[in-house]
Amino acid sequence: xxxxxxxxxxxxxxxxxxxxxxxxxxxxxxxxxxxxxxxxxxxxxxxxxxxxxxxxxxxxxxxxxxxxxxxxxxxxxxxxxxxxxxxxxxxxxxxxxxxxxxxxxxxxxxxxxxxxxxxxxxxxxxxxxxxxxxxxxxxxxxxxxxxxxxxxxxxxxxxxxxxxxxxxxxxxxxxxxxxxxxxxxxxxxxxxxxxxxxxxxxxxxxxxxxxxxxxxxxxxxxxxxxxxxxxxxxxxxxxxxxxxxxxxxxxxxxxxxxxxxxxxxxxxxxxxxxxxxxxxxxxxxxxxxxxxxxxxxxxxxxxxxxxxxxxxxxxxxxxxxxxxxxxxxxxxxxxxxxxxxxxxxxxx
Length: 348
Hints:
The protein is an alpha/beta fold. The protein has 13 helices and 7 strands.
């Protein structure tokens, strides 16, 4: 099997009849196999994808992108593939960027590759860019490395990496879970520029409030557990070591998991203060705790301040929302995000 033949394109699709044919046709120009998981569509998406040349897995009901991705990963493993390239079905990802992924994959076969739209911020709606920057900040902290665009679903996943992770989350949180667990287990995540495509009037199944909230509380709860482990185990950086470790210890059941997320959300500010105090006290005593923070080239105090300012970010976001409703358009959020969350950093 040639290297390109061992890589397939995978697409999670739900009611995408207007765009799926173009995505499938474009992807087939660069990889021999395109697999579509039809996530309970009711508009004929499966038939259109099949006619365009895709191999289609029909799911009986809509259960979200996370479940569809797990189905696609399992099918790719069953076929003996080594990696998959995930694209969205709505046309936001240009299949002509696939050769760039394949080229980087040849040089870095063990790394997760993520597309990045951050090179063209003027092409991204302002409110969406702000949320992308904030998400990047916190997910990069959890993943032990700077990930330029954590919200882009155009990615190349080595299946050996996916097999090492226990994926428990649903919907769009799954893509965040992959980055966080892979990075926190010591896997490399690399970014490459892609085109930012936002066709006017295109439908999206991403729910701005519930999906952003789900991603946020998961990452916050992950960080609180991660920093707790690093605080108790001097020298530890990578806290995820497979199923049942790190944040997964508290995923005993869906109900308990939700309760734990609420608890960590309510206590994240005092916990952050406690972690910061322990970091400086331990460092003064020569004990290397919270090593993932220490490795950042941003002062630890600045990183922790950004966490503590989350209520301020929420407040200015609400003021912008109210102002926009009143047609005043204050845009306080952009300045706040640029000041406290845009800091680029590298990791030693």
